Amino acid sequence: REQVPVTLLEAGEVDREWLVIDGRSVEARESARPRGSMHIPFEFRNRELFQVPDGAPVQRVVVVMDADEESQARELALWIAGQWGIERVATLVGGWPAWQAAGLPTEEGP
Question: Does this model's pTM top 0.85?
Answer without folding.
Answer: no
